[in-house]
């Protein structure tokens, strides 16, 4: 009887050991997908946080984040598969790039956020206070320049030629400029410094650059974009290349961005990035 008890005990230990070993083997063989993601500015800091999060680990993603200073280089690197995803561009920028690069197109996985562009001034606290013949600075890259001009139109400072929401406009599209404002295109990263330039009355600054300069678009801007159907082209998208456009692991990047724990962190540190979780098709309408 004692021998039987001992044998049963030994058998139980063996079964438990095998079960534990199987569990650990199964746990340790869980696949992890490595994705090199390019970004810039505050978006780089956001994705570095996401990459180090428990949410990313649970999703089975290892995200390596690369910071870029040249926006154009981000899509080129993606098309060449030097990176496998990027998160920096608006839907309007994405559409414009694909039209110009039909052989090296990139593919949107989903939406991430929208952050309103603001008009800032150290000298005037309302748009109607900006005097005639004043100089207003806007960023000089095509997407930001267009967005800045549309911001000035929505503020009632000028009128542009009729255009679709997704169309890029230039200073040549200004048809009414009642106060004869001078538009000064500048490099986007220099826009916050121009707030201290006595020759510049106001500056249109994208929210990514504004946040780096510790500006709060809802508190510091004298006017900012309204978040509505007319600004849908400014929603940011997470993008991949042709090789990975149908890979479900890459779709996890979108889900991960909108994870509640990530959104809680974003609201604390980057409140200007307002989450947008909509199908890409809604931006094209």
From TrEMBL:
Cellular localization per UniProt: Membrane
Pfam families: Lipoprotein_9
Keyword Ribosomal protein included in the entry's annotation: no
Membrane topology, as annotated: Lipid-anchor
Entry-linked InterPro entries: Lipoprotein_NlpA
Principal subcellular localization: membrane
Residues spanning the membrane: none
Superkingdom, natural source: Bacteria
Name of the protein this chain belongs to: Metal ABC transporter substrate-binding protein
Species, as recorded: Leuconostoc holzapfelii
